[in-house]
Write a structure and sequence with these properties.
The complex is a heterodimer of chains A (141) and B (143). Chain A has 141 residues and is mostly helical. In chain A, 74% of the residues lie in helices and 0% in strands. In chain A, helix 2 packs across helix 3 and helix 5 packs across helix 6. In chain A, 56% of the residues are buried. Chain B is mostly helical. Helices cover 64% and strands 0% of the residues of chain B. Chain B is built from 7 helices and no strands. The chains are: A mainly alpha (141), B mainly alpha (143).
């Protein structure tokens, strides 16, 4: 258990370093939903190639690490309806709220952004309530 | 050109961090939200760890411009509005349902199999579907 927390802390530091690099070098906030979403929207600026390279980095890094270790378990459900519904909710919700765990959570909280703090409190509360309803009460997931 | 390299390296750090921290493991994320069951506090350590370098980064931004741009691209919307509330509620529900948020879903695309791909494609569709709702609002992203 404690080893998981240490991995969590070390992994978290690396996530934060990724955000630091993007901010102090390129002046951009590291938000996964924003970077992917703006790319999908076909935002008319000169930064789409930067977004693509960021995403390639995110996908490539675990594949490199997994050559030397086995962190690979995702435990993702095989229930199609659950995955599709969850994906739609996460995609729609993060774009309507203009941020997710990385943008509102990591980057927002660290600069004491009221929007970031508020969003993080709400999505954790909504997530916990959903979990209690679906797992504790109904035993569905 | 250098900005492209920075973006790629930033993505590498983000991807490694998401994997090592356990955030690509849906069971750990759902465990964090499972407050009346077998609660797993790992996500708090991840969040805490990630915030440390970012606090330093924001302190640096107060003193100087970015190295490879003229200015920082900051969110212009500062108000807590209905979209922020509603979007966060929807996101939280989906987050609990599959144990995935956008970053880890992207990071797991290469090794997570068809389940991750199905979630990712659905997430992209969800993003596209909300475009009309988002039109006309301030579009500068928080993240």
């Amino acid at each position: 258990m404690i080893i998981d927390w240490i991995y969590g802390l070390v992994g978290g530091l690396l996530i934060g370093l990724g955000g630091l690099i993007l901010l102090i070098f390129n002046g951009r906030i590291m938000g996964a939903s924003g970077i992917l979403g703006q790319l999908i929207d076909g935002k008319q600026d000169t930064e789409n190639l930067e977004r693509i390279l960021f995403l390639i980095g995110v996908i490539a890094a675990p594949l490199i690490i997994l050559q030397f270790s086995d962190f690979s378990t995702t435990n993702v459900t095989s229930n199609t309806i659950q995955l599709v519904l969850a994906g739609l909710l996460v995609g729609a919700g993060t774009r309507i709220a203009n941020g997710c765990t990385s943008g509102h959570g990591v980057c927002g909280i660290s600069r004491l952004s009221l929007r970031g703090l508020f969003a993080t409190a709400i999505y954790i509360a909504a997530g916990a309530l959903t979990m209690v309803t679906l797992r504790t009460f109904w035993g569905l997931i | 050109m250098i900005r492209l390299l920075v973006s790629f390296v930033s993505g590498l750090f983000f991807g490694v961090g998401l994997l090592i921290s356990g955030m690509t493991d849906t069971a750990k994320v759902q465990g964090w939200l499972d407050i009346l069951g077998q609660w797993d506090p790992t996500l708090a350590f991840v969040m805490g760890g990630a915030i440390i370098p970012m606090v330093a980064a924001w302190a640096i931004t107060a003193k100087q411009a970015p190295l490879f741009d003229l200015h920082f691209s900051m969110p212009s919307n500062k108000t807590i509005d209905f979209k922020l509330l509603a979007g966060s509620v929807l996101f939280g529900m989906g987050w609990a349902l599959a144990g995935l948020c956008p970053g880890p879903a992207i990071a797991a695309l290469g090794f997570g199999g068809t389940g991750i791909i199905l979630f990712f494609v659905s997430m992209v569709i969800g993003m596209i579907l909300t475009k009309p709702i988002r039109m006309g609002s301030i579009s500068t992203a928080d993240g």
